[in-house]
């Protein structure tokens, strides 16, 4: 009898623990629905996330490498013409892309550009240097590039641009990159390193495109940009240099002279 009661108590204890675990899971799920209803219930689509300012990252197998192609999708708050102008200003990349130390167009032939690039890395990775062959297709909103020579195993990528359906004055951009340095780290580590690079570059392009848009609109704005992508400290430049000269406030007008009192007789 005592053994029977002990068995019942153990069975009740197991049932209690089981129901407690189920209740805890339901409680946590309910809190998730309450705190993040859109994300949990899947009510947000891609456009909603882009309008909120998200960068959407995805991976896909590469037919030319053991690593993955990393794609970032972003919404630029500027029409396609301004975005295209910034993306194809290859000589200027070293100024605003945080990982690129030098960028120079060596020659152009029609829609094809040859660009020499130097990339600064932290130890243990060496600095990268390579020559890209870039093909611009403005009629399709596409830019593609492939490494011709350099100290990487493989490097290629592409842009795909289109006016944003909800607002033609905005541009939806898809940036794809495969960067294979060859033999430094495992595939997973290198894929996530490329993911970080895609995010950093899209952030930098976003800031530069916004700066170009405000320059064309004649309205300077505050720009936050790191000096280098590996830097610890960031700072805010309250007034970009290009706007300092033309936006200085005019000097105050001199106060009118007080009338002199009449001379005494």
Structure description:
By secondary structure, the protein is α+β, with helices and mostly antiparallel strands. It has two domains: 2-41; 46-242, Alpha-D-Glucose-1,6-Bisphosphate, Chain A, domain 4 (2-Layer Sandwich), CATH 3.30.530. The protein is built from seven helices and ten strands. The protein has helices at residues 2-35, 37-41, 46-52, 80-87, 93-96, 187-217, 241-244, and strands at residues 56-61, 68-76, 100-109, 112-119, 128-137, 142-150, 154-164, 167-180, 223-224, 236-237. The protein has an eight-stranded antiparallel sheet. A hairpin with a 2-residue loop joins strand 7 and strand 8 (167-180). Helix 4 (80-87) crosses helix 6. It is elongated and about 100 Å long. The protein starts with a helix and ends in a 21-residue tail after the last helix. The model is unreliable at 2-9, 28-41 and 224-248 (pLDDT under 50).
Low-pLDDT ranges: 2-9, 28-41, 224-248
CATH topological fold name of the largest domain: Alpha-D-Glucose-1,6-Bisphosphate, Chain A, domain 4
How much is the radius of gyration in Å? Answer: 29 Å
- Described by its quaternary structure, the protein is single chain
- Class derived from helix and strand content: alpha+beta
Per DSSP, the total helix count is 7
CATH architecture of the largest domain: 2-Layer Sandwich
Shape: elongated
Our estimate of the beta-strand percent is 25-35%
At the fourth level of CATH, the homologous superfamily of the largest domain is: START domain
- Tell me about the biggest sheet? 8 strands, antiparallel
Mean pLDDT: 79
How many structural domains does the protein architecture include? Answer: 2
Strand numbers in spatial order across the main sheet:
1-2-8-7-6-5-4-3
**N to C succession of SSEs:** HHHEEHHEEEEEEHEEH
